[in-house]
Amino acid sequence: MKLQEPPRWTDSDSAVIAVGARPDFTMDANDGDVVMDGVEHPLASTDGPSTTNGFRDSGPSGDTSRDRSADVDAGDDEDESDAGVGYPVQHRRRGLLPTGCCYDDRMKLHANADFGPNPHHPEDPSRIEHIMRTFKRAGLVYTGSDADLIRIIQSNPTKYMWRIPARPATREEICIAHHPAHYQWVESLSTKPTHELRTLSAKLDQGRDSLYVGSMTYDAALISAGGAIETCKSIVAGQVKNAFAIIRPPGHHAEFDHAMGFCLFNNVPVAAKICQADYPEVCRKILILDWDVHHGNGIQNLFYEDPNVLYISIHVYLNGEFYPGKPDNPMTPDGGIEHCGAGPGLGKNINIGWHNQGMGDAEYMAAFQKIVMPIATEFNPDLVIVSAGFDAAAGDELGGCFVTPACYAHMTHMLMSLAAGKVAVCLEGGYNLEAISKSALAVAQTLMGEPPPQMEVPKLNREADRVLAKVRAYQAPYWECMKPGVLDISKLQELGSVRLHDVVRSAQRQTLSEKYFMIPLYIQRDVAFKSYENQVLVTRAIHSAKKLLVVVHDPPELRTQPDPLNNMVELHNSWMTDGVVQYIDWAVSKGFGVVDINVPHYISNPEDTDAYIPRMDERAMQHQVQELVCYIWDNYLQLYDGVEDIILMGVGEAYLGIKLLLINRDIKLRISGVVNFVNGNLRPIKSDIDNDLSHWYKENSRVFVAKNHACWQDADLTRKVMKRRFGTVIRSNVNTLAGMMTEHKADVQKWILDRVSDEQQGETTEDDRRAA
């Protein structure tokens, strides 16, 4: 067999050859520095006459005039080797394909160096140079002699990455994803004088455009797109098993008709569309996974109605405020999770938009395990393209996230289980040179077959988990793997269904009405508390009671065991526990009037269609509960002149209402005692106006805190909660609210009776209650 001369990786990290001939671009014969407009451009120097763009040339790579689908079956002759990449055919037949790598120094010509002595921009040419240098130092590419490389390939064909030559993309290739006018605009940059480019860059650097341009921007952008094309085509054609394209400028923000966000041409969509056109039999469905910290608005919009391209983006959304979103611009492309595609592409667009920065390994691994891999497996792509921005990596200040190289390796490894391992990784963002190099190295090593390193996954952020639950709910109508455990609320509403917490409260009202003749308290509010009317129940003739028990509590606790196969919940496998009723029963028997204030975790609205709605956050709950308890005090409780003793009881998160009432109303002289049961936030009671409030609260309260509460896990926290502003804190032996209320019932009831007047503490009969 005659072995074709393989490509060679040179020791030079930065050889540069000009693309085309222009009057303003020359090569210095002495040192090889690029000279533009008479000024040296110190990007790099050449490495000798035997190299082209830092590599040994390995044959034609830019021929797009024929149908390349024939390359898939190339190599029937034992003595032939592929003309495109030069990898031995007998190794391809045995499945011993290498990992490809596409790199070209000419992409560094797009630089901000035209516009000042100390130019600085996050999207700097050093990004790809550092990655390539890291690959070489790690031994992923071979820089020795050609003869040695031939011997190594014959004995160990997958030891090194195989060079995929980059080339300029053609106009026809670019326009498969972009408007011709946009191509012409980028092309026109190559003929503009420096002062116009400087003015244009200053204008484009504002707002969402966030872009600089130079005299060599057009050339670099063509090679970046061409590199993505050749990388993906080499994988589909079976010349390499997978590949890493170290390319710039990036592309995923570039729209159909304009550039933005450091991006000129959208490299990945261009490559994807060309692969679909050139290899229709073997590359029909493509998964594009975008883990750049910014949403790939350009990719989303180019494939939003395409049923054969599944686009999944994991990014920081921050309620639309994180780039490329702008809350003051309603026309801004949106990375919100509600954008699921349109027309035939409905369900083929998936946005996992984090609520904030600071996400790390736990969140990204959870996103892959819960969303990405199940949907990708169901989609069953023929090719996977990763828009690999590394600006979510730990150390990148622009992204502000904490994804480690090990996590990138594990995500890559999971993607390699798809499409028979045909994975093309194309560089996007990432602006910390150390972080981007280490992360890219971890990905490349995984592509080459090294197992991902062992990693310890931290605890998943609670809000991030809610984001994933919402994504599941939005995608459930389109993917079978997302349906278990997700309800179609719109269909349930058509059937006249109601939320369970409304049913539970109605049942409580009926029970308390029949047993204790309790009635809803009238709340004179048109909008704010319209939903609270049935949440406040009182015993009859409460205005004449001598003693009052005011209970502000969470809804009953629900426990259920879902079916392990379909996640269905059956009523006979569900239980409701309500610890409050036993105290109401006791209070009525002791002659107390009772005010029962139920604080739902969420007030239902008829228009709610989300399958999962999180409970109110602290701020929303504080606003509503404060207004509610103060309204009840001002309009009812303080007007009962005959009341001698008032006991306040807070249960669960709703005990926030006790705190807010004590702080906002001067009522401590009328309160005989406070009892709280806490398994969530432990809240201090302190007033800037009443300096004696904390001391009073300490002397007149019992605060039972769950056994597993975080305050007991640290000695410093334990000492802190023993201070007077937290009340008299008692550690319970149980964890649930109903369990604590039952465990401490006798002690609490005795403590209450010791603090109230001696009159009317006898048992109240049924006849007495009916007479009242």
From TrEMBL:
**SUPFAM superfamilies according to UniProt:** Arginase/deacetylase
Which EC number applies? 3.5.1.98
Q: Give the top-rank taxon of the lineage listed in the UniProt record for this protein.
A: Eukaryota
From the UniProt entry, list the residue stretches annotated as the region Disordered.
Answer: 22-90
Quote the InterPro entries the UniProt record gives: Arb2-like_domain, HDACs, His_deacetylse_dom, His_deacetylse_dom_sf, Hist_deAcase_II_yeast, Ureohydrolase_dom_sf
What is the protein's major site of localization? Answer: nucleus
Instruction: Tell me which UniProt keywords the record has, alphabetically.
Output: Chromatin regulator, Hydrolase, Nucleus, Repressor, Transcription, Transcription regulation
Domain Arb2-like intervals: 499-757
Q: Where is the composition biased (Acidic residues)?
A: 73-82
Localisation per UniProt entry: Nucleus
* UniProt record, GO biological process: epigenetic regulation of gene expression
Q: Name one GO cellular component term.
A: histone deacetylase complex
Enumerate the catalysed reactions.
N(6)-acetyl-L-lysyl-[histone] + H2O = L-lysyl-[histone] + acetate
All copies of domain Histone deacetylase, residue ranges: 121-446
A single MF term (Gene Ontology): histone H3K14 deacetylase activity, hydrolytic mechanism
Family that this chain belongs to: Belongs to the histone deacetylase family. HD type 2 subfamily.
Per the entry, what this protein does is: Responsible for the deacetylation of lysine residues on the N-terminal part of the core histones (H2A, H2B, H3 and H4). Histone deacetylation gives a tag for epigenetic repression and plays an important role in transcriptional regulation, cell cycle progression and developmental events.
Question: What is the name of this protein?
Answer: Histone deacetylase
